[in-house]
Design brief:
Layout: H1 4-21, E1 28-38, E2 48-54, E3 69-78, E4 81-90, E5 93-104, E6 107-118, E7 124-136
Antiparallel strand pairs: 1-2, 1-7, 3-4, 4-5, 5-6, 6-7
Length: about 140
């Protein structure tokens, strides 16, 4: 026979699990660090850090310079995880990124793969590790 204490703990665990499964993306200014590795190149590239306003409407961290025009082609939000596909065009060529980011309150972690198609060059591929921390409200 189950005790009342066991039943209460089971119910509490269930609600904690459910609330974690439906955690929301915290809107605001985030500091985002991206560490990229180029496939087939042994040289380590330095990590880059940017600040970006993340909202529920725009939950995908931007990892390219303003020289590129980017469009998110596909993204899905499931609880605290965002999966996406983004295409960016610039005078240098085309970048196609597919990634996944999981938000955990004031932090997030993610990874993505970027294919770079530059005019007159063979296609390159980057593996990116992305992390972020919440700084505060977005500046208006």
């Amino acid at each position: 026979m189950f005790s009342k204490k066991f039943a209460v703990l089971t119910v509490l665990f269930f609600f904690l699990f459910i609330s974690g499964a439906f955690a929301e993306i915290k809107e605001g200014l985030w500091e985002i660090t991206t560490k990229a590795e180029m496939k087939g190149v042994p040289v380590q590239m330095p990590a880059t850090t940017v600040k970006q306003c993340i909202t529920k409407d725009k939950p995908v961290p931007k990892s390219v310079s303003d020289d590129y025009e980017c469009k998110v082609k596909d993204y899905k939000v499931s609880g605290d995880t965002v999966t996406y596909k983004m295409e960016c065009w610039g005078k240098e060529g085309l970048m196609i990124t597919e990634g996944k980011t999981t938000y955990k309150g004031n932090t997030f972690d993610g990874s993505s793969t970027t294919k770079i198609k530059t005019k007159g060059q063979p296609e390159m591929q980057l593996a990116n590790k992305i992390s972020g921390k919440y700084i505060g409200p977005c500046k208006k």
